[in-house]
Write a sequence for this structure.
């Protein structure tokens, strides 16, 4: 059973068919070719597939594709056009990625935090990324990068 | 509730690489006509920074900007044989192979430049910015791009090189059992301070102070990142994660990333690191390898700190709150 | 096997579908069902996408307030009416998950999950279920005990607490997020220095969240002294089998339940009644 679904993907209207039971993540990666959200666990435990749906942080792997009909879906790819998001720059400056698998989800989660809370405390940053697992960095450089962007955006 | 502070220390001599019938790695380097170099490795970058470090090593040896070097890893179809990314051997073994290969390619490039400038190759030097000039006469210069182009289009020379680095197998002395297993050791000393709650067995407020002797930090930021992240993983192995929490029973295996326990961003240890540099005589630009040594010392240091805090020796990993509490109850019962 | 999907705004239809087919499930936030689909669980054959304003409503109702089954943890946190549930809702998952996980889903979450449900038990909440074309209410504890009858949960009703206050704590291995080793929710009313009413529920401890009647009896009638609390803590294990999993053994969970009940009520001692 296929169902038509219409939504905007990073600002661009798209229409396609989804299979019954298909996740938004599979739609994005396999049918739209946007491979920035990653498939980590498929259980909601790693945050590698974090995207924004109507501005709200969500897990693409646990989102039934046809439920995004009419919604605005944003992946990390939306943040890097035309220029890199300051968070992406800061992640590079702070060496906040090693293998890089968690990075897209981490940046979407961090951007969502800063959009709603431009001056987060360290604990608020920790809370905001607590659903995004990183196994390489020990989180420290990630937290530093996010706090650095917050300081820079508030003073700007 | 009583909380107890404890301190554990550890010192490590860490052998770089291994000795099982010899320990070789290879590298291939070639330039395109634009003077852009490709380093082909079958070695794998698994996040530790092998690509970055071999790129720096190749650029330094070739005498070209880092931006002129591309490193292609992890393909055994296009890269020559490598034993693998393990035993903290990547920088040391692969780095040396890259130096050997890059030296060969550099010699071809300099020979072409010498013919262009009508001088002897031994009179030439590179400035690391993409130029080759005559020593003492920087105005007599040719770009590495033009040299590479001339080699291929005018002189029919391949600007390329292959390199291998081998630590040969060391036989065991039948009389003494002695063998020379490795050529190079890295070192670490670590102090872990932590607090144990004697009612729950939980560990908190972990503070790590460490000193690592790693030969030379070829990329200091990468080095620091690897040491911080590696120590975090060491803490995870010490106190949190296991696939067999109820070993040897197969029951109660983890079924997701909540039940496969790992420390979260709220469980970070404050970690102060001192990096000591004693260049290794046989290391690439003196570099050794911090790989596994960044994680390993945390395990005994945590065990020692728990013993210092509450007097129980936990000899099974991970040192979970439950294991600490059971040991405490036995201790009180005894 | 292909999955069937039904979209409807008719609770009666959804109720009939799930009552007649054990492979049919009403979709909440997807945190339980999508996960089971990824894990290859063939028991999930039919997803029902039920919509309707009532399902996401959080609003006062006579004698208390109602929370729709499809309200997310984030919705609960944004609703002043549901203030009593803010701490428990905030202890569920991480931000992305809280935007998705629903109150209805939490009632049926795989143990040791179900922290909000634990708090709802201590608040004496009722399950609001579909009945014919109308609604029915039954104590939440009864709904949780009877797992054989498949009812459509439209939401929960939380009665006014009068003078009672909810005390809540959740112990995890990793921080700030993790699955429960034990979750304790205790609603206490006090008068004249005595505990006049105690409802105490535990999550993570023994499969589904449950009310501990032995603990409640031990706490009721006297002052909230250290001795009373200690006696009550010894009643936690009555009639239950603590669960063992990768996080902790049943032994450790029960030990931690005692410790955390004592710590929680120890703080309650000093707080205004």
């Amino acid at each position: 059973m296929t169902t038509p679904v219409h939504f905007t993907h990073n600002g661009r209207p798209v229409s396609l068919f989804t299979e019954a039971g298909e996740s938004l993540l599979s739609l994005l990666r396999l049918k739209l070719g946007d491979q920035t959200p990653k498939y980590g666990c498929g259980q909601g435990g790693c945050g590698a597939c974090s995207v924004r749906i109507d501005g709200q942080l969500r897990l693409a792997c646990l989102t039934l594709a046809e439920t995004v009909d009419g919604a605005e879906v944003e992946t990390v790819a939306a943040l890097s056009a035309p220029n890199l998001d300051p968070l992406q720059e800061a992640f590079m400056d702070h060496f906040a990625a090693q293998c890089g698998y968690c990075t897209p989800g981490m940046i979407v989660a961090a951007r969502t935090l800063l959009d709603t809370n431009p001056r987060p405390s360290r604990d608020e940053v920790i809370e905001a990324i607590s659903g995004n697992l990183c196994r390489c960095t020990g989180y420290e450089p990630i937290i530093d990068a996010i706090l650095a962007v917050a300081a820079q955006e508030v003073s700007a | 509730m009583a909380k107890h502070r404890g301190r554990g220390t550890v010192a490590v001599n860490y052998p770089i690489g291994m000795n099982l019938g010899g320990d070789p790695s290879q590298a291939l380097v070639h330039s395109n006509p634009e003077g852009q170099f490709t380093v082909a490795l079958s070695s794998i970058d698994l996040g530790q920074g092998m690509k970055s470090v071999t790129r720096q090593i190749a650029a330094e040896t070739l005498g070209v900007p880092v931006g002129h070097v591309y490193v292609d890893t992890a393909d055994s179809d296009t890269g020559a044989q490598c034993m693998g990314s393990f035993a903290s051997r990547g920088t040391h073994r692969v780095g040396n192979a890259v130096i050997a290969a890059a030296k060969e390619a550099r010699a071809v490039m300099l020979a072409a430049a010498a013919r262009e400038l009508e001088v002897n190759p031994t009179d030439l030097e590179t400035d690391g910015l993409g130029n080759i000039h005559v020593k003492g006469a920087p105005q007599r210069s040719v770009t590495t791009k033009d040299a590479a182009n001339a080699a291929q289009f005018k002189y029919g020379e391949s600007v390329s090189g292959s390199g291998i680095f081998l630590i040969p197998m060391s036989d065991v002395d039948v009389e003494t059992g002695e063998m020379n297993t490795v050529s190079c050791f890295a070192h670490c000393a670590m102090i872990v301070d932590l607090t144990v709650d004697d009612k729950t067995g939980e560990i908190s407020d972990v503070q790590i102070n460490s000193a690592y002797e790693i030969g030379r930090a070829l990329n200091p930021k990468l080095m620091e990142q690897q040491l911080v992240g590696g120590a975090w993983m060491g803490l995870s192995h010490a106190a949190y994660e296991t696939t067999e929490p109820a070993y040897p029973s197969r029951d109660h295996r983890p079924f997701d990333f909540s039940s496969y326990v790992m420390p979260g961003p709220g469980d970070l240890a404050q970690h102060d690191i001192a990096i000591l540099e004693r260049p290794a005589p046989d290391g690439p630009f003196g570099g050794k390898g911090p790989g596994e040594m960044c994680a390993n010392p945390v395990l005994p240091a945590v065990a020692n700190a728990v013993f210092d805090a509450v007097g129980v020796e936990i000899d099974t990993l991970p040192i979970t709150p439950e294991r600490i509490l059971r040991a405490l109850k036995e201790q009180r019962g005894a | 096997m292909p999955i069937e999907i039904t979209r409807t705004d008719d609770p009666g239809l959804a109720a009939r579908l799930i009552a007649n087919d054990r492979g049919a499930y009403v979709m909440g936030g997807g945190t339980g069902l999508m996960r089971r689909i990824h894990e290859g669980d063939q028991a999930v054959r039919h997803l029902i996408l039920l919509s309707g304003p009532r399902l996401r409503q959080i609003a006062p109702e006579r004698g208390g307030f109602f929370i729709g089954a499809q309200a997310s943890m984030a919705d609960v946190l944004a609703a002043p009416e549901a203030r009593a549930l803010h701490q428990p809702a905030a202890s569920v998952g991480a931000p992305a998950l809280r935007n998705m996980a629903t109150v209805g889903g939490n009632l049926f979450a795989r143990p040791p999950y179900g922290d909000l449900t634990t708090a709802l038990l201590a608040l004496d909440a009722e399950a609001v279920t579909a009945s014919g074309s109308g609604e029915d209410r039954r104590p939440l504890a009864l709904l949780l005990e009877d797992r054989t009858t498949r009812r459509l949960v439209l939401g929960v009703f939380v009665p006014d607490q009068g003078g009672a206050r909810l005390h809540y704590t959740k112990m995890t291995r990793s921080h700030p997020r993790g699955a429960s080793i034990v979750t304790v929710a205790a609603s206490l009313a006090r008068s004249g220095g005595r505990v006049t009413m105690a409802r105490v529920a535990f999550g993570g401890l023994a499969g589904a969240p449950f009310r501990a009647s032995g603990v409640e009896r031990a706490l009721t009638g006297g002052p909230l002294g250290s001795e009373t609390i200690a006696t009550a803590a010894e009643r936690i294990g009555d009639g239950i089998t603590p669960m063992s999993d990768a996080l902790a053994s049943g032994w450790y969970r029960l030990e931690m339940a005692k410790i955390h009940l004592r710590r929680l009520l120890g703080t309650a001692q000093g707080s205004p009644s």
